[in-house]
């Protein structure tokens, strides 16, 4: 963790500058968190139970839902605790662990989206050979590659950040251990280290985005050559949900991690990070469920089974107590 570090804990100020809004924010974020968990778990259960959804596209969607659920669990419970607590301290190891999991899962999300774009290209370019090309083994290998890439990149970021010397400054102007607010406390943060951290962020965001755009360039070139307007519409409709999620995800993430920083942007960064950590995981399952008929049918079945299960359990308990 760095031999010259003299700080053993940080103070997460978070939304302390908005004392009158903290209870309101707690209620909003709490219900958003519950909704995120319910929506993503519903998607995973629907894909697991519906054999029609046992294809590569839904396999990646299930992986994305799981990864985003874990991302919110890394950030939101701690944020909710700090909104109600007077003590907002986080130890140095806890801060490093939070940063590691957040960035490894965030990078994993980016590269899963890149894998999903490749899956859509394969489905449109070679529809007859698609089941042979996108096998379970191939999907598993791609998912493992996204996970390993995320872990390696995040580990490098954490090792660089937490080998800095933090001297006496220990107040983080954020609600979690993000890169910029943590390194702003360091005494020996050099231009070279700044460029290395920017390169890792660019590798994840720009690298995965370039892979997605390459896939869609090929997809568009194939679709525009289709003679049937119905065929073109069907091909584009299979990509619409993925494109919507990509625009939401990369719009917020790129604004936070790739734009030039200034010293007065801490509150702006914090509000944008709030949308990225709460709004994006909330919108993704909504987009996929609203724009996908197969997913809508599967979710209705899951909700129907849940609605039938609870009255059955209630009546069973009533009989056992009578």
From TrEMBL:
All copies of the G-protein coupled receptors family 1 profile domain together span: 39-288
**Membrane is among the record's keywords:** yes
Note the InterPro entries from the entry: GPCR_Rhodpsn, GPCR_Rhodpsn_7TM, Olfact_rcpt
Q: How does it sit in the membrane?
A: Multi-pass membrane protein
What residue intervals traverse the membrane? 24-46, 58-76, 96-118, 139-162, 198-224, 236-258, 270-290
User: Which molecular-function annotation in GO is an example for this chain?
Assistant: G protein-coupled receptor activity
Q: Name one GO cellular component term.
A: plasma membrane
* Name of a matching Pfam family: 7tm_4
Its principal location? membrane
Carries keyword Cell membrane? yes
Q: Keywords assigned by UniProt?
A: Cell membrane, G-protein coupled receptor, Membrane, Olfaction, Receptor, Sensory transduction, Transducer, Transmembrane, Transmembrane helix
State the compartments where it is located. Cell membrane
What does this chain do?
Answer: Putative odorant or sperm cell receptor.
Q: What protein name is recorded for this chain?
A: G-protein coupled receptors family 1 profile domain-containing protein
């Amino acid at each position: 963790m760095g031999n010259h570090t003299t700080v053993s804990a940080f103070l997460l100020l978070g939304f302390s500058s908005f004392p009158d809004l903290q209870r309101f924010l707690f209620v909003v974020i709490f219900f958003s968190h519950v909704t995120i968990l319910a929506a993503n778990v519903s998607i995973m259960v629907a894909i697991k139970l519906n054999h029609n959804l046992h294809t590569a596209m839904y396999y990646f969607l299930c992986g994305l839902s799981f990864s985003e659920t874990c991302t919110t669990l890394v950030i939101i419970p701690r944020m909710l605790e700090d909104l109600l607590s007077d003590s907002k301290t986080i130890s140095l190891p806890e801060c490093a662990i939070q940063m590691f999991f957040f960035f490894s899962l965030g990078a994993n999300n980016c590269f899963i989206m890149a894998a999903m774009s490749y899956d859509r290209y394969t489905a449109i370019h070679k529809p007859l050979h698609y089941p042979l090309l996108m096998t379970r083994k191939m999907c598993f290998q791609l998912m493992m590659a996204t996970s390993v890439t995320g872990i390696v990149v995040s580990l490098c970021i954490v090792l660089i950040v937490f080998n800095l010397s933090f001297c006496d400054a220990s107040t983080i102007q954020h609600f979690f251990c993000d890169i910029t607010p943590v390194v702003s406390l360091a005494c020996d943060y050099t231009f070279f280290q700044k460029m290395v951290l920017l390169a890792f962020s660019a590798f994840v965001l720009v690298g995965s985005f370039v892979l997605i755009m390459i896939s869609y360039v090929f997809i568009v070139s194939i679709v525009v050559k289709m003679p049937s307007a119905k065929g073109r519409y069907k091909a584009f409709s299979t990509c619409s949900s993925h494109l919507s999620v990509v625009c939401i995800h990369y719009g917020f993430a790129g604004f936070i991690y790739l734009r030039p920083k200034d010293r007065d942007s801490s509150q702006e960064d914090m509000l944008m990070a709030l949308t990225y950590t709460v709004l994006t995981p909330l919108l993704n399952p909504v987009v996929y469920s609203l724009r996908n008929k197969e997913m809508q049918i599967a979710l209705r079945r899951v909700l129907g089974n849940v609605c039938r299960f609870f009255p059955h359990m209630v009546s069973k308990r009533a009989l056992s107590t009578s």
